[in-house]
Amino acid sequence: MNMRITRSLDKLYNFADCAGLHLILGLNALHRNPDNSWNTSSTLSLLKYGAGKKYNISWELGNEPNAYRSLVGRAVNSTQLAQDYTKLRTLLQSVRYYHRAHLYGPNAGRPRKNAIGLLDGFMKNAGPVVDAVTWQHYYMDGRVSKAEDFLKTRLLDTLTEQITKVTKVVNAHTPGKKVWLGGLGPAWTGGISNLSDTYAAGFLWVNTLGMASVQGIDVVLRHSFFDYGYTHLVDQNFNPLPDYWFSLVFKRLVGPRVLAVRVAGLQRKPQPGRVIRDKLRIYAHCTSYYNHNYVRGSITIYIINLHRSRKKIKLAGTLRNKTVHQYLLQPHGADGLGAKHVQLNGEKLLMLDNETFPELKPKTLRAGRTIAMPPMTIGFYVIKNINAYACRR
């Protein structure tokens, strides 16, 4: 076993373990035999090494296989890819420690014609082999020149259309199979300098989390955490960038159970094949059970205001007379939407030291008070002690 590879795996696994993350390791699918089948010569050794170290790892094979021809001049069709994944599953089962390890794939690219064709053939031949179906979505190319481009409702709504395409293919072959967004970023080819790492990109990111939840996507894997291009969550000194703060607030406040939202004044009857391009987007979940500041039964609402004017939202029904905790995230500094710093309820968010997050302090809104969303901002609102039935379980 190559010592460089094992050292890299050690570092990667230790980082994930220390951070409380689960590692999904992508294997090289382009290591091919003359007959174009996947070459497994080093994979079994890697599996045995990981098993010996008791590394709890899940696995994936390749990245955007539909693009192999254009990238490296060597195509892998759906039938061959299905055989490769079946072979990998057999290898995992041959190593006792990884007998029940999870396998994800095929990590197809954005679901256009070629990617959908490959996914369809893969699911037909290897659907039961994977534990969840993965695919990638990137919103735009590198030619974007201004922050306002991130606020286009047409752009935000492309994800809904893509999820519908993917789930249709998956359910045709393996109904109920979990679907994951295995790669997600505001832009492909590493993003856009001084744009995809700013506050402006947060609208895409938070809306993605809301849309994916509503449409039953269990997991969204963000690309990337560090160093590659301009879509990363932390800078070169590991200081959090805006999307990191959005992610942290989301994790702290938003639980997995999704609730329906009715917005009076915005309700329109959708027409077949037409997406309603609202500039005020409201999502609701049960508050995260892991947040000990809130009892079970609390509700978290998060709102994206894409308008250039302030919008007022009045809670109705049983929500009307409850105390609300506000977590309003706005750009900090003179750069506006291009800011690389975020303020929470008016206070700039900064790490206290290399290991310590600042306290995420809410602003208390008295019962019955109207929520006022400033233009082009994102806010999270926890309705305390509402004892919602759907959130008590």
TrEMBL record:
A UniProt-annotated Pfam family: Glyco_hydro_79n
GO cellular component: extracellular matrix; extracellular space; membrane
Single GO MF descriptor: hydrolase activity, acting on glycosyl bonds
Domain of life from the UniProt record: Eukaryota
Coiled-coil intervals, chain numbering: none
GO biological process annotation, one example: extracellular matrix organization
Similarity-based family: Belongs to the glycosyl hydrolase 79 family.
Protein known as: Uncharacterized protein
Organism of derivation: Pleuronectes platessa (European plaice)
